[in-house]
């Protein structure tokens, strides 16, 4: 009877101790590590458990790809002087919010980025402001279907069709004249989402990177005027291209406007 009682006491003590650190490592979940830390605060493996728990929270944020995931991680670790990944998480959160604004491309999304990161990356803030301004003029633009055809990039009529020409008709219906109108040529996948993007102006005083530009592209677009956007290059390298395209205006400057950010 005494032997049975001792065995029962030992069993109760074992259960009370909770899972071993080795068992928690095998489970490798946030819930398992949190339970271990709560039940065994004096275990010699507590420091290792805390380090890995932080990593698991950040891994969850990265895999979920949501702002809430990053916010949960930061709410737990931003004030913790022993946390090891706060700087990376803060940087990734800003990048996530910026990329989300790029994907949605709405005034609300761009304003949300600027409101949360008034001291963020300079180039990103400039792009956000350009996009917001573009939203104000979006109704002034009528963009026709994006079309494409195979071409010989060397303009050799007997040469191989080694590239494509993308075109779309764009009409400006606003006031004044447009000096610069930058466009995104989105190459779409089967789900309609862009898998690769080229940027080229419909009209601009100079081409991106000071590349050569046709003289007619430098002439401002007047109100009511239709202008053809065209861009030629090799086929997108990204897999999954559905040979479909979409033209999206991303930046505008009218004649006489101050171009400073």
Describe this structure as you would to a colleague.
There is one protein chain. With 261 residues, this protein is of the alpha+beta class. It has two domains: 18-101, no CATH class; 139-254, Immunoglobulin-like, CATH 2.60.40. The protein contains eight helices and eight strands. The chain has helices at residues 2-17, 21-27, 30-39, 46-64, 67-77, 86-104, 107-116, 122-137, and strands at residues 141-143, 147-151, 163-172, 177-189, 194-203, 221-222, 226-233, 241-254. The strands form two sheets. Strands 1, 2, 3 and 7 form a four-stranded antiparallel sheet that branches. A hairpin with a 4-residue loop joins strand 4 and strand 5 (194-203). Helix 6 (86-104) packs antiparallel against helix 7 (107-116) and helix 7 runs antiparallel to helix 8 (122-137). The longest helix has 19 residues, at 46-64. The N and C termini lie far apart (86 Å). Mean pLDDT is 90; it is low at 1-16.
H/I helix tally: 8
Gap from first CA to last CA:
86 Å
Number of strands: 8
Can you tell me the overall shape?
elongated
Domain tally: 2
The structural class is alpha+beta
| Rounded mean pLDDT score | 90
Strand content: 15-25%
Largest sheet: 4 strands, antiparallel
CATH architecture classification of the largest domain: Sandwich
Helix content: 40-55%
Radius of gyration: 28 Å
Report the order of strands and helices.
Answer: HHHHHHHHEEEEEEEE
CATH topology group of the largest domain: Immunoglobulin-like
Under the CATH scheme, which class of the largest domain? Mainly Beta
